[in-house]
Amino acid sequence: MNNPFSEDQFYRQALKFLGQTRTVGMKLGLQNIIELAREMGNIHEKMNFIHIAGTNGKGSTAAFIASALKRSGFKTGLYTSPHLITIRERIQINGHPISKEQFSHWVLEIQEKIERIKQRKKDFGCTFFEIITMVAILEFFRCQVEWVVWETGLGGRLDATNIVNPRLSIITNIDYDHTQFLGDTLESIAEEKAGIIKEGVPVIVGKMPKEALAVIKKRALEKGAECIDICQSVEIKPLKMDYERQWVEIANIPFCLGLTGIHQLDNAACAFAALRLLFAKENSMDIKWIQEGFRTVCWPGRFQLLRRAPLCIIDGAHNVAATKQLVANWERIVGTEPYHLVFGVLQDKNFPMMAEILKRNASMVTLIKPPTSRALEPKELLPFFDGIKTQICPSWAEFIPSVDGSLRPILATGSLYLIGQILVEEYEDKEEFKWNELLDG
Q1: What is the DSSP letter of 56?
Q2: How many independent structural domains does the chain possess?
Q3: Residues 260, 403: one domain?
Q4: Residue 34 CB contacts under 8 Å (≥ 6 apart), including other chains
Q5: How far is CA 387 from CA 26, 240, 324, 399, 408, in A?
Q6: What does the pLDDT average to over 314-331?
Q7: Residue 248's beta-bridge partner residues?
Q8: Residues 356 and 410 both lie in one domain
Q9: 381 is in which domain, residue-wise?
Q10: Which of 21, 111, 180, 329 is the most exposed place for a label (fewest CB within 10 A)?
Q11: Helix orientation angle between 287-296 and 263-279, rounded to the nearest 10 degrees
């Protein structure tokens, strides 16, 4: 394991095994993860979790909280999905991804445990997400983190992350996404998200439609859980904003946020309310550390300034609600100047509506297929950009030389897979990114 080649080889074997589990597909339910956790000693019961669900904004809210906890001196685990460049991003301790060696070790151990369970239950098996969730639990326990900021994958009630009994729950917002799994009404989607609310555990609720809020408040009442609606309890005042940060007041306290976009005010307010509730009694978190954590938060691919000449913004908006917010942020920060849209999307998204929203301000469109087997072929998007000059390009690396010297601003969006490819081709070592192919099974 000391040889770098053998470590990479071991890591690739782990990724290959995970890719094979993806061919099984998605299984919503907790039975398998409960069985696996029991085999591992139920160590998740010994940790402090902050559990976050929501259609959009849960990753940014998690990042705000984790950054503030770290700045306050707490050893902090952060579990999120999906990843941009490497699967190891999903499991971070104080901002550092799990190592290849440790990741591979845990995957191998889990694989062995699954085989052991199969001796008792022949039809037992775990999904890709269940295994990654267990890897996170094992690593956070090994490193003795004091707090785990724990983002759901899909939904909440039947999501693998829902085996934990957290100290606090957060539901950032409710909108339409993954309707094939969560239902096609706001009420049904809210019901699934509200499944993370536990008996007597407080829940922070972000800005959302009233019909969704009613469902969540009803669930909280049934569970005897205090429900804190930030729209009623936290005053938010935007001050100014630029491409990289924004200045706001939350509960009359000044903040500089390291994430820009008007929607980040709500995410920061959820994070602030959560931290205030958790640490009010102990008085163990000075407001200056929350301010510093929010200022230094790092969450790539969310209205991120990639280049200044020409201006280029990348954003992983991957559903209709996020796309609407992205265009609103563009108009607020950049203005009404038309952009060159770079767009790539997954097959299961509402891409006709996303295209309709984005093309209103587009003077030209370049379609790039995100690097995943779930991606939609760009040619299928052509009818939705009728009347606008549109081209198909194999990759960002081949697209960007064609715009060098142009003054037209660029907006790249549609999928976090596409954003990951862009970041790699701009900044990162491409080798590990290529290994994501192994995860497609």
Answers
A1: S
A2: 2
A3: no
A4: 163
A5: 38, 36, 21, 21, 19
A6: 94
A7: 238, 255
A8: yes
A9: 304-440
A10: 180
A11: 150
CATH number, domain containing residue 419: 3.90.190.20
In this structure, are residues 250 and 236 in contact, taking their beta carbons and an 8 Å threshold? yes
Contact between 186 and 211 under an 8 Å Cβ cutoff? The reply is yes
Say yes or no: 38 and 156 in one domain.
yes
Residues in CB range of 180: below 8 A, 6 or more apart? 348
pLDDT on residue 175: 86
Same-domain status, 133 and 207:
yes
Amino acid at residue number 281 = K
Helix/strand/coil percentages in the chain, nearest 5: 50, 15, 35
CA distance 432 to 436: 7
- 412: tokens are 């790249």
Residue type at 384 in one-letter notation: F
Secondary element (H or E) of residue 50: strand 49-53
- Asked if residue 228 and residue 90 are part of one domain, the reply reads yes
Phi, psi dihedrals of residue 204, rounded to the nearest 5°: -95, 135
Kindly report, residue by residue over 226-248, the tens digit of the pLDDT. 999 999 999 999 999 998 899 99
What band does 284 get if pLDDT is binned at 50, 70 and 90? low
Give yes or no for residue 169 having a pLDDT over 50: yes
pTM, to two decimals:
0.94
Looking at the structure, tell me whether residues 67 and 205 fall in a common domain: yes
Q: Are strands 96-97 and 91-93 parallel, antiparallel or unpaired?
A: antiparallel
| pLDDT tens digits, 83-95 | 999 999 999 999 9
pLDDT for 1: 45
The answer to whether residues 248 and 236 touch, using CB atoms and an 8 Å cutoff, is yes
Q: What is the CA radius of gyration of the chain?
A: 21
Among candidates 92, 82, 26, which has minimal Cα distance to 59?
82
- Residues 291 and 272: their CA atoms lie apart, in Å, by 9
Q: Which two tokens stand for residue 108?
A: 């191998």
From 25-29, 346-350, 351-355, 364-368, the region with the lowest mean pLDDT: 25-29
Tell me, what CATH number does 127's domain have?
A: 3.40.1190.10
Average pLDDT, the chain: 93
User: Is residue 169 located within the same domain as residue 83?
Assistant: yes
- Structural domain ending residue among the three candidates 238, 267, 296: 296
Among the candidates 296, 321, 339, a domain finishes at 296
Q: 376 to each of 96, 368, 373, 406, how far by Cα in Å?
A: 32, 10, 8, 28
